[in-house]
């Protein structure tokens, strides 16, 4: 240390202050007490595990938030499009909604939902329930042949049984059944009734009794049994009081008119994309789950009995051949449509009987009423027709299938025989495709159509009755005369 003689006045004053402070601390015994506290703290940490507390998280909103980004900001060319053809903004919204939910409610928490609690229409739904039960009590002969052969579809043979120009749209056959985009539309499979069932992107299921009387007012009944977009509706013609519906959020519910309840049948953490049933089996449900998985749910055991991984991507549609219900067709976003024999699908490496390839996602694959043809609709702007003994002959027909993000994808459906396919177009019309002529031969148009009809169903008994649904919740019904 330097001698005090060489220090400045400031340095000498500083040293004196330090010395005085040390003397004061020694008198108060602060150093020994600090050592005791340190030792006590170390002993306490040895016996107690400490957890770091994270800041409280703010609850996330339940409303799906969809972020739109232009192709330019994503560094993509102007003509870029998704080669897999995802189900546009509806699936995106469903995924965002699922990811924003901390934990998915268990089936026991959801449980059965009474039709009264699910009903969100005006007035009462008692008339609808009574009508459904009344129709279901009629003899089965009114629904088809005595052997349970099904509907009138396919009865006209290979030739045309009607004039396309005779199909017309009357103002009384137009109604807004649900709010928002319709994902599925089905006619109630009843000979003496004109009733339509639809499902929208908000989880609503709507009924429209076209032949409503004054007691029913407009004949429209609205339910909300699901938390997400409706991905499938199945109604068996020999079990009319039971209507199955599925949604993107992974739920399948059964609307039982006799019990007046939407019962929870199945729940999954994966998305359910499509739903179907065989014509000769009311006890089993066939539905697609996740990326390429097909499940069979058996009512008799109350769980899934079989599961196959059939595709490399989501399965968009499931259909069964009317002549052989063991033959099933699936369409997928992996760019293929496949025909399967349910009796010979291997569990480890399933191999289809026939594969129809497209350049982009295949939105649907439906057998013709006779079972002799398979029609596929793809985002590659083509409608495929597979025919022949083993469906070995395939032709592709050009059709503009670019619906964009805000309209449900086009799906060509068969009419009442093998003569025609019906599919929407972007000019608010319905194109009629002839498989024999391999082209569009007619377009249904009307000044009363205010939106693009994108999803269709042909009445299984009334020839010439065609329902078209839009992204605005409207349903149009074309009839003969």
TrEMBL record:
**Gene Ontology terms, MF aspect:** DNA binding
Gene Ontology cellular-component terms listed: nucleus
Outline the WD repeats, range by range: 308-344
Q: Where is the composition biased (Low complexity)?
A: 92-108
Chain positions covered by the region annotation Disordered: 31-63, 68-87, 92-115
Among InterPro entries, the record links this protein to:
WD40/YVTN_repeat-like_dom_sf, WD40_repeat_CS, WD40_repeat_dom_sf, WD40_rpt, WD_repeat_DNA-damage-binding
UniProt key word ATP-binding: no
Q: Bias regions of kind Polar residues — which residues? A: 32-41
Identify the keywords attached in UniProt to this record, alphabetized.
DNA damage, DNA-binding, Repeat, WD repeat
GO BP annotations, alphabetical order: DNA damage response; regulation of DNA damage checkpoint
> What job does this protein perform?
Specifically binds 5-hydroxymethylcytosine (5hmC), suggesting that it acts as a specific reader of 5hmC.
Question: Which PANTHER family does the entry link to?
Answer: WD REPEAT-CONTAINING PROTEIN 76 (PTHR14773)
Family classification: Belongs to the WD repeat DDB2/WDR76 family.
What is this protein's name? Answer: WD repeat-containing protein 76
| Gene source species | Carpinus fangiana
């Amino acid at each position: 240390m330097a001698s005090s003689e060489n220090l400045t006045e400031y340095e000498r004053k500083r040293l004196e202050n330090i010395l005085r402070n040390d003397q004061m601390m020694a008198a108060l015994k602060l150093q020994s007490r600090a050592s005791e506290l340190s030792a006590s703290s170390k002993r306490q940490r040895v016996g107690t595990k400490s957890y770091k507390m994270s800041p409280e998280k703010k609850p996330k909103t339940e409303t799906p938030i969809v972020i739109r980004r232009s192709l330019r900001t994503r560094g993509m060319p102007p003509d870029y499009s998704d080669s897999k053809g995802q189900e546009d903004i509806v699936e995106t919204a469903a995924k965002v909604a699922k990811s924003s939910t901390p934990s998915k409610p268990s089936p026991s928490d959801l449980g059965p939902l009474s039709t009264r609690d699910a009903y969100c229409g005006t007035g009462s739904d008692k008339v609808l329930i009574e009508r459904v039960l009344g129709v279901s009590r009629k003899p089965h002969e009114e629904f088809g042949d005595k052997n349970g052969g099904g509907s009138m579809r396919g009865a006209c043979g290979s030739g045309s049984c009607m004039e396309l120009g005779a199909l017309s749209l009357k103002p009384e056959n137009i109604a807004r059944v649900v709010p928002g985009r319709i994902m599925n539309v089905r006619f109630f499979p009843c000979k003496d009734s004109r009733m339509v069932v639809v499902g929208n992107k908000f989880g609503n299921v709507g009924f429209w009794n076209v032949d409503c009387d004054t007691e029913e007012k407009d004949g429209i009944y609205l339910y909300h049994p699901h938390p997400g977009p409706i991905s499938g509706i199945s109604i068996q013609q020999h079990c009319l009081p039971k209507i199955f519906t599925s949604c993107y959020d992974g739920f399948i519910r059964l609307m039982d008119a006799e019990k007046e309840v939407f019962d929870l049948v199945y729940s999954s953490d994966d998305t359910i994309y499509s739903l179907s049933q065989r014509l000769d089996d009311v006890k089993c449900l066939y539905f697609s789950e996740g990326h390429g998985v097909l499940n069979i749910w058996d009512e008799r055991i109350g769980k899934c009995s079989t599961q196959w991984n059939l595709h490399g991507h989501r399965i968009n549609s499931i259909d069964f051949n009317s002549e052989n219900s063991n033959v099933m067709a699936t369409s997928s976003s992996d760019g293929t449509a496949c025909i399967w024999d349910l009796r010979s699908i291997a569990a480890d490496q399933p191999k289809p009987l026939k594969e129809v390839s497209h350049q982009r996602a295949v939105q649907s694959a439906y057998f013709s009423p006779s079972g002799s043809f398979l029609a596929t609709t793809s985002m590659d702007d083509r409608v495929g027709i597979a025919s022949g003994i083993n469906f070995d002959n395939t032709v592709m027909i050009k059709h503009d299938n670019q619906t964009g993000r805000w309209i449900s994808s086009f799906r060509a459906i068969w009419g009442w025989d093998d003569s025609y396919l019906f599919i929407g177009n972007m000019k608010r019309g319905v194109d009629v495709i002839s498989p024999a002529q391999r082209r569009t031969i007619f377009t249904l148009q009307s000044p009363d159509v205010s939106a693009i009809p994108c999803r269709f169903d042909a009445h299984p008994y009334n020839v010439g009755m065609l329902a078209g649904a839009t992204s605005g919740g409207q349903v149009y019904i074309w009839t003969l005369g």
